[in-house]
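Quick one: structure tokens for this chain, please?
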Amino acid sequence: MGGCMSRKTGTFDPQKDLNDLTGKIAIVTGANTGIGYHTVKFLARKGARVYLGARNKSKAMAAISQLEEEGIGPGQVVWLGINLSDPRWAKEAAEEFLGKESRLDILINNAAQLTGAYEETNDGINSIMVTNHFSPFVFTRTLLPLLIRTSHEPGSDVRIISLGSIAHTQSRALSPDLKFKGLEDFNLEFASDFYPDWSRYSITKLACILFARELQKRLDEQKIPILSIPIHPGEVNTFGDRTPWPFLANIVMELFFMRPEPGSYTSCFAAASPVVRNFPAKYKHAYLEPVGHVGEMSANAKRDDLASDLWETTERILDDLGIDIPSFN
């Protein structure tokens, strides 16, 4: 979801316009419904074995049954239990995957918390920042050694996709005074704002884009051929049922927002379109909007100092909590 409404999907067809993914392994988090569900479907139909990341096993298995009923072609879908409400659980999920597979070609950090009352986890961190930034950071970093090994294999095309949002161009995410120097910068409540939930959400989505950009920078410095791409999926009807007025919200969203299936197209494009690998200089430092167009990032999203501070402060907070992740400088 975001501000400027658009239903543009162009001529992109995930059934035809993606690479053959036979023999490839992918993970999509938050995938038992919505954008993630359809992303799993299209990757599987191109031959990938896709790990459907979801917290609830029964909901995940129901989603897999529905996918198989719709048809996943030559691919396979497997449940991966992951709970992003605690970085330790995100690490456990990554380690579980590492115990099962010897390669990872595509990682799509799709799961996110939208809004909700301000609360802190037992670790004293803003809960939405944990779900949308700290846990995906830990999950990705724990999987990164395998992603790197896979990227050096012949014929590999490894990509890490981070679902950002146009929300990073709105609200408090635009503040020129924004910083990520210490824990207090992650715990801003914005209680006096008109819509505090959105203020907090916008900053988590900025963090998502900054993380993806800083990861790409560090990969490039080590000449690792992985693409790290942040995207905005478009304004997608995935949250209507979570509003105080779900019936009214769903009517409005049906009129002005994309359905989840076309909402998955930009994720699929970034993850598996041959165009992206053919023109890496165009895409790997970009922020993509529907479908596959290079969008305009906010001034804060372009700040290298903010991206570096986010990375280093996140590492320091995790270290203080005793959460070990593989080093990557």
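The radius of gyration is 18 Å.
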